[in-house]
């Protein structure tokens, strides 16, 4: 029974029926029926109850165990969206199998969620997935929005930024037509996350702040919360070292608390350490040894150990060549420029960041180029030109 662990937790806290009712915005008799197993709470109430009653480290299991056993159609729809938005493909697949024959009129939602689950598990390739998604024509308001959301994922990967921005007003007009509740709020947050990715990498600080303000305090899953905390750190990155480090540490602690160690390690070793080295802050050597080669190379450069830095940089180059991992290539050029004092490498680094659609981290080589005479006016011109180039190609997909 889905209420069992929650009943135990309520008993442990000593909360009264009225206190529980106040937390989840229902009446006392509804709570009583739920705890007896006679009533299934609405998804929003279950979400609030678990978020309030369970410590952070227990929440992932409590959410999973509860939402895998919801039975009414509305709750199943919300649970599908929860697991998908939270990147929990295993639970998403299990929920689909349990319910797709039970709720035949939700077949479009089941198809789309199963589709994104397969893509995230690499069962289908990116190109094949995109073609199949383009060929699918949903008919309900909810599935149309979900379909548009998944198209946005691919538009970001293919760097079709114009498609993302031109659909913005249509997306929120379509969201307004949905019933209020968790499903609508979660979809809204996912669209906002996509716009955050665009404006964030576009280094548009005003839009970053606007989007973060809309998202902060209105989290619909742990992935959403971690992402927003991460982006808040990036927002402060170039003008407030103390706040940046504070937010990165909050993000790391959050990920470790929910057992998302892979995300926590990424933020720690590739984001926090990068910015700490940039600002000349001390880091323990035993921790640096756990970081990727390009971060270690940067660290030893800052420490004045050029031979060690060059050795690690060669390792980084070989790995990029062997694994075709181009994401660290602009950092490699940046380091090459620092080590050789050849500004051509900073230009290469900057344009590689531009090619990836990442104006935020292009500020690393740009700051070095400014030291060698690049004016603020030219910086603004370069950034403006790159932002405009992002919007030149591609057509906006119809939002039905």
From TrEMBL:
Keywords: Receptor. Residues 6-59 form the HTH cro/C1-type domain. Pfam families: AimR (PF22871). This is AimR family lysis-lysogeny pheromone receptor. The lineage of its organism: Bacteria, Bacillati, Bacillota, Bacilli, Bacillales.
């Amino acid at each position: 029974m889905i209420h069992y662990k929650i009943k135990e937790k309520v008993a442990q806290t000593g909360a009264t029926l009225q206190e529980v009712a106040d937390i989840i915005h229902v009446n006392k008799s509804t709570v009583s029926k739920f705890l007896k197993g006679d009533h299934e709470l609405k998804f929003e109430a279950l979400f609030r109850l678990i978020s309030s009653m369970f410590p952070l480290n227990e929440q992932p299991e409590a959410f999973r165990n509860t939402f895998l056993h919801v039975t009414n159609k509305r709750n199943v729809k919300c649970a599908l969206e929860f697991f998908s938005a939270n990147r929990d493909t295993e639970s998403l697949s299990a929920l689909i199998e349990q319910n797709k024959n039970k709720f035949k009129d939700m077949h479009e939602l089941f198809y789309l969620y199963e589709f994104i689950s397969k893509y995230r598990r690499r069962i289908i390739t990116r190109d094949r997935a995109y073609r199949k998604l383009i060929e699918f024509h949903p008919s309900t308001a909810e599935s149309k929005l979900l379909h548009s959301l998944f198209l946005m994922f691919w538009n970001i990967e293919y760097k079709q930024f114009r498609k993302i921005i031109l659909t913005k007003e249509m997306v929120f007009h379509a969201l307004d037509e949905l019933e209020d509740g968790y499903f609508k709020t979660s979809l809204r947050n996912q669209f906002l996350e996509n716009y955050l990715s665009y404006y964030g990498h576009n280094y548009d600080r005003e839009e970053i702040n606007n989007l973060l303000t809309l998202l902060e305090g209105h989290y619909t899953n742990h992935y959403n919360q971690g992402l927003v905390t991460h982006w808040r750190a990036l927002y402060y990155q170039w003008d407030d070292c103390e706040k940046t480090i504070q937010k990165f540490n909050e993000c790391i602690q959050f990920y470790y608390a929910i057992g998302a160690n892979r995300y926590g390690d990424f933020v720690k070793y590739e984001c926090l350490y990068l910015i700490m080295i940039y600002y000349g802050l001390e880091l323990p050597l035993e921790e640096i040894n756990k970081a990727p080669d390009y971060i270690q190379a940067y660290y030893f450069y800052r420490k004045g150990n050029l031979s060690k830095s060059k050795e690690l940089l060669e390792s980084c180059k070989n790995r990029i060549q062997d694994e075709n991992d181009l994401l660290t290539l602009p950092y490699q050029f940046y380091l090459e420029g620092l080590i050789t004092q050849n500004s051509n490498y900073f230009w290469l680094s900057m344009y590689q960041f531009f090619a990836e659609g990442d104006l935020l981290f292009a500020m690393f080589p740009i700051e070095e180029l400014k030291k060698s005479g690049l004016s603020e006016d030219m910086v603004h011109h370069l950034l403006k030109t790159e932002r405009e180039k992002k919007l030149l190609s591609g057509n906006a997909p119809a939002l039905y």
